[in-house]
Structure formats: structure tokens, C-alpha cells
Amino acid sequence: MTNVRASGPRQFMRLRDSFRTAFPWNHHDLTRDGFRQWARKKRQPPINVDAHHWKPLREGEAVPREMVEAFSEYAALMLLVPAGECRLSVIAETCDPPEKKKTASGGRPRVAYASGWKYLYSFWADSFAIDESARCNDESDLLVAARYVFECVGWHDKRLSGNSAIAYAEGVMKRTLEEYAQALLLFWQTNEHAVLFATQKRGGTVERIGVSVCVAVTEDFYRRFRAGEAMESQIEPGDLVPQSQFVLIQAYAENVAIDLKQNKVARSLAQSRNALYQLASLFLPVQYDAWQPHMVTFAGSTENGKRQHAYGFSPTGAKLAETGKIIVEFAPPTPDKQGVGYVKALAEYLPMKSLIQIFQAYIESQRPLLE
Q1: How far apart are CA 159 and CA 79, in angstroms?
Q2: How far are the Cα atoms of 118, 120, 121, 125, 126 from residue 114, in angstroms, in the given order?
Q3: Keywords assigned by UniProt (predicted)?
Q4: What is the mean pLDDT of residues 1-6?
Q5: pLDDT tens for residues 91-141?
Q6: For residue 159, what are the contacts with CB-CB under 8 A and spacing of at least 6?
Q7: What is the DSSP secondary structure assignment for residue 237, as one 8-state letter?
Q8: Nearest one of 129, 282, 153, 148 to 206, comparing CA atoms
């Protein structure tokens, strides 16, 4: 895995007006989604292009330098023009970072009583958004995510840190740190939100406080994993889909480099917000009866087992063949549950589905702003 992130402050560029005004933006082979897919799945080294940067790019505003570099390659490839015509120095110029944008609600809160539904929605919608640093931008971020998971395993199991924690986790997880990072690359290339950092604002900065790894899988893989017949360490490309009603929760990990005794409540809420955003991105639209969310995972530790039980996960009766960990599931209540058992299961399931639907509505509401 190649580390592509340069050290030092992030650099920004803007397209030159002469290039931007003459460029054939409506060319049928050159689209925002096509560019983003190509950058993450086919470019070497791959990078993640934030959808929110496409409109600023087209309008000549400041965007990350690596995005402009990738765009110059993509434009030359799609338009079949000599690379020199799309050379970085020809099409763009360095510039200052963009000014911090206002929140969707316009920044300063207003009295809600007379502000109307539109303002009220936009005000609360601000809390659904994730920070830009929550996303993995490239392979170096995926390696950071892998380290979070391995160091978390070592810390919570044996109170180990650094390389000692990683060495221990490699034994537990039956793979090396680099092998796990390669697996994360496959997940990330299938859906950019499969590997997502949890972030929290502290003072004037945003810090990464953890990472979650969840993947949308085929029903066949889900059923086999649920029964203990498939191993999460051997997921193949054919087992993955961009969105599904079946999601495998592969890992939730804290950044053990921070003080875990401080701000525990705030950190847990920040992590839950990012987890909901991630699940909303991976599940097919849950408002349709045909697409009911199913989640499967495993009890990686006693603490994880307690947390899963609190959220209604129940054992499937199977264990992971490679580690012996108990497999647990959170799915729609089945007809075999009767009376109080069914009501209790439904009372757990419906709030989850409602939260996912709210986050999906927010994500969908942002799409027109990206054009």
C-alpha cells in the first residue's frame, strides 16, 4: 500500500478562468460521479474526491490540490486529448484555502417560534453532517484506520500500546496490519463510507476519535456469515455491493492515543452520529418495505458484547470459525417471536429504522447542493 499523503499543511488550487470557461463540462463522458468513481477505483494511487468539492471546482473556487491533479488526469483520459493540454500548471493555480462556509441554517441560531419549518429543518440538519476529515481520502488514511483497529484491540484486551498492541492484534485477527489495510481498500473502493472516522470538535480543531468499518454485502454472504459458514477476513469483491439491506459491521474502534477517560459522553454521541451516517449511506432506502435493514457482527470482546446487547443484537447460535467469537444479529422481528417478545423486539427495531431513514433523508436533501 502506497502512502500518498504529503506531510505539512494541505495545499489548495483553483482552476484558471481561461481553462474553466472553455472546458466542455457537459461532455457525456465526463461527469461528477464518473470522476469520483474513477479516482477511488481506477486511479493509482487512488484518492477519495469529496462530492461537495465538485461544484467549487467547476466555479473556480479553492479545492484540495490532489483533487485538481486527479481531475487533470481524468479530463485528459475522458476527452482523449494530449496530457500536456491538461497539465496541472496549465489548467490551475495555487491559492489560499477556502473560507469556512456557514452552516445550512445560516450560522447564528434564531428564535425557533417564528422561523418556520424550513429554518427548523436546516438548523437540525446541521447536526447530521459529518466533518470532511471523517472521510478517508487515500491509502494513507486507510492505514491510519487499520492502526486504530489494531491498537484498540491490543489496548482493550491487554492494555498494550503502539507496536506491542499491533503485534498482539495481528495474532488475534489472523492477519498483518498491511493485509487488513488492503481489505479496507477493497471496502472503501466499493463504498467510500465503508471506512469512516468518528470526529469531534475540541476548541478550534477537529480530531479523529475513532473509526468504524461496515460493509454492504450480498444476501448470500450475509446468510453464510450469520451461520458461521463465511469468514469476514476472506470477503471477496463479489460479496460486496455499494448498498444493500444487509450490512456486516466489521469493526468499531477508538483512537486509543487520546485520553479515553475524558469527554466519554460527548465522544460516544459523536461516534453514534457518524455510525448512523455510515449505515444510512450503506443501506438501501429503508422507507420501502422490501428493503428492511439487517445487521450482523460478532462479539469481539466482553465490552463489545455488552454494547451489542444494549442495542438489541442477539446471538445467531453460530461462531466465527477462525476466532470462535460469537456471531450476533440485529434484524426485523420474525414471526416466531410472540407476545411480549415480539413487542420488545419491534420496540428495538423501529427506532433504529427511523433514525436511518432520517439520516437518509438528510443525505438525499444534500444532493441538489452538489450540482
Answers
A1: 55
A2: 11, 10, 13, 18, 19
A3: Plasmid
A4: 50
A5: 999 999 988 655 544 445 556 566 667 666 666 666 788 888 999 999 999
A6: none
A7: G
A8: 129
Spatial separation of the C-alpha atoms in residues 230 and 309, rounded to whole Å: 23
b/e string for 280-299 if b means 16 or more Cβ within 10 A? bbbbbebeeeeeebbbbbbb
Q: Within 80-204, where are the H helices?
A: 88-91, 116-125, 139-158, 162-173, 177-190
- Give the cell for residue 293: 435493514
- Residue 268: all three cell numbers together: 460516544
CA distances 214 to 236, 263, 265, 280, Å, are 15, 25, 23, 11
What is the C-alpha to C-alpha distance for residues 207 and 212, in angstroms, rounded to an integer? Answer: 15
What pTM did the predictor assign?
0.83
Residue 231 identity: M
Q: State how far the alpha carbon of 188 is from the alpha carbons of 32, 268, 302, 332, 365, in Å.
A: 18, 24, 28, 27, 23
Pick from 131, 132, 169, 130: nearest CA to 147: 169
d(CA 251, CA 211): 8
Distance CA 258, CA 256 (A): 5
Q: Annotate 152-182 with DSSP letters as a single string.
A: HHHHHHH---HHHHHHHHHHHHTS-HHHHHH
pLDDT tier at 82, thresholds 50, 70, 90: confident
Q: Topology of domain 133-370, per CATH?
A: Aminopeptidase (3.40.630)
pLDDT tens digits for range 144-164: 999 999 999 999 889 999 999
CA 289 – CA 182 distance, rounded (Å): 35
- Number of Cβ atoms within 10 Å of the Cβ of 20: 16
Give the C-alpha separation, 263 to 12, whole Å.
33
Contact 246, 272 (CB under 8 A): no
Q: Give pLDDT, residue 3.
A: 47
Least confident of 133-147, 215-229, 288-302: 288-302
Q: What's the CA gap between 50 and 63, in Å, rounded? A: 10
Q: Residues near 200 by Cβ (< 8 Å), separated by ≥ 6?
A: 206, 207, 209, 263, 266, 267, 270
